[in-house]
Fold:
Amino acid sequence: MSKLYKILLKQHIGAVNKPVISVGDFVRKGTLIAEPSGLGANIHSSIDGRVKEIDKDAIFIEADKVQREGFQSLDNTGSIIDTIKAAGIVGMGGAGFPTHVKLNVHLNGGVVIANAVECEPLLVHNMKQIIEAPELIYKGLCYAMEASNAKRGVFAIKAKNKEAIAALQKVIKKDNIQIAELPDMYPMGEERAIIREVLGQLLAPDQLPSAADAVVLNVETLSRITEAIEQKRPVISKNITIVGKLKSGIESKAFMDVPIGTTVRELIEAAGGIDGEYGEIIMGGPFTGVSVDIDQAITKTSGGIIVTMPFMKEKRRMGLLVCACGANEQRLREIAAKMGASIAGVEKCKQAVEIKGSLKCEDPGNCPGQAEKVLKLKKDGAEVLLISNCSDCTNTVMCVAPKLKMPIYHCTDHAMRTVNHSLIRRLK
Ligand code: SF4
Structure:
């Protein structure tokens, strides 16, 4: 039987795309199959095949047994922005904001920052790409600077990633492009955290990077810009990390250029298959990923696939402490339910403020102190805590909760324990 690819009609922030092909049509790798109906980005077929079905969420394509070399090149290109738009490039670090919209600014001689932080633990595909193909990312940064009239470019990367830093140093040829080495903390990859560290300017939670004359773009996004401009290649594939309870071992494995529409199941099988009983499959990173079905399709914003160990069981009453940059309340409730715990109370970090329906941190990764929130949860009847806090705030929770004899779980624990990684607790 031929393989069926499920290509979602919404792989970006904005509206659901509208299909521009019909059932029965033959498509090539790279054929435009759906266009934006509002804010959004073009979607192209990732394989050669026949359109089998279209529903309100997805286009299903039956793949040809023999896939031809190459892809259908982009037409309708012109300026850098036009080409990015035609290629359907979005923020591939997970945000999914259409890149042609983000870059359609005049930066007044400002800066484009390449987000090479790879902030979530266990993910490795960004660093692998930097080490193996730094030129592609460097050129993408140059194109993004040209498109937005930026005077300089910066690679923001954690200082611990020495090999990737060395690879970037080898390809940087312009004096106005530098490397900024950042500390190893979560959420160092948050846009406003990067701008604070690189430019020394703390933006308000409702301000965009453009308020600092800056644009922040993930490194894979930059490489896709280069591919679009130099090869006329649309976004038809995604780099993915697979890690966890796998027969091939627990270490992280990067799969590059996975066709969009591939299922999580196929990728896990390619990585050796699941090793025995497991807790859940997370799509994304340990902090902000979500639990998904094994038949979920890969999109332009997929990043990690984590197969976790079974959940630890906890019968005591649980207090939830929610971070704006980690797992949200819904996800913490889901984890608590999977552990078997009942909820005694929910508190948000006092730096977490609601902006347009979602939480944003006033100063990502700089803890305001959590004693008051921990005491409140204790008063509400919590015997244990489940938290999603950043590295710094977890550190301050650890300064209080043990004295109150309250054991702590972090939302990342089951992922980190699966691979014998140190838990998010005290800062070293
Ligand atoms: S300060 Fe609070 S809201 Fe901000 S990142 Fe840390 S835990 Fe999250």
User: Anything to note?
Assistant: Residues 65 and 416 are 39 Å apart (CA to CA). The pocket of iron/sulfur cluster is lined by residues 187, 323-325, 349, 351-352, 361, 364-365, 367, 389-390, 392-393 (CB under 6 Å).
